[in-house]
Amino acid sequence: MSIWNALADVDYRHAYVDAGGIRTRALQAGPEDGEHVVFLHGTSGHLEAFVRNVPEHARHYRCHAIDMLGHGYTGKPDVPQEIPAYVDHLIAYLDAVGAERAHLVGESLGGWVSAWAASEHPERVASLQLLCMGGTKINPEVMERLKKTTTAASLEDDVELTRSRLRLLWAEWDEEFGDELTEVRYAIYHRPDFQKNLPNLLALQEVEIRERNLLRPDRMPRITAPTLVVWGNKNPFGDVPEAQAIADAIPGARLEIFNECGHWPQHEQAGRYNPISLAFLAEAR
């Protein structure tokens, strides 16, 4: 099945939105008068990470899956991409589409950005879903692995390196969408603007920069939005105790652990994730 065939029953729009002067790629679907749900991907990712989630969520909500600042086909200012800049871009996108408040669903880096946004702009965040979120600790081994695999996949003309980079995210290879997602990501990685921006995109994998962007213990309690933490027990970038610590640090947060699951729970186990997410959103409304 094609990732776009998965959207065949959905009235969607592939759009480019001016978000604070940044040309921003977005997949928009669902009732225009529905509550807004914004899906944010991880480091070096793109909006296709949520192709298994948008159709079911768009039955009830106005959904937006976007390529974040410096990622995918979105604009790439020539400065290191740090968390406040990602948040500013997110808020500019919400302003551009007329979303006074939104439910944020963030995977990995997207969760980091979402949590920071919820702590800085609580009036804009209706609820928070943090899927294998990063940003609470420094792990040089993980950071170096992410830098090396992304750089190699981007700068070398070998599609198998891109496949290996994706394979790192999943507990099991995705037979349905894996090959197509590899092609999508390979095309993005080998765009001249992506390659030029690579040091800026990977800035958070440098210890000094990451240090000043961490979600510290004094920030987490400032999150007042209803929060759901979702984690895979085979997440290669963080073990289950990290997920528990995140949930414990956010008042009232709920934790869901997915067994036999890696770094993309919303994709790897969409059949389990979607009902949990929709029930959580219904409670948070």
UniProtKB/TrEMBL annotation:
One matching Pfam family: Abhydrolase_1
UniProt GO cellular component terms: membrane
Domain of life: Bacteria
UniProtKB keywords: Hydrolase
Occurrences of domain AB hydrolase-1 (ranges): 36-268
SUPFAM superfamilies: alpha/beta-Hydrolases (SSF53474)
InterPro entries: AB_hydrolase_1 (IPR000073), AB_hydrolase_fold (IPR029058), AB_hydrolase_sf (IPR050266)
Entry keyword Hydrolase: yes
Keyword Hydrolase in record: yes
Molecular-function GO terms, alphabetical: hydrolase activity
PANTHER family: HYDROLASE, PUTATIVE (AFU_ORTHOLOGUE AFUA_2G14860)-RELATED, MONOACYLGLYCEROL LIPASE
Official protein name in the record: Alpha/beta fold hydrolase
Organism: Actinomadura montaniterrae
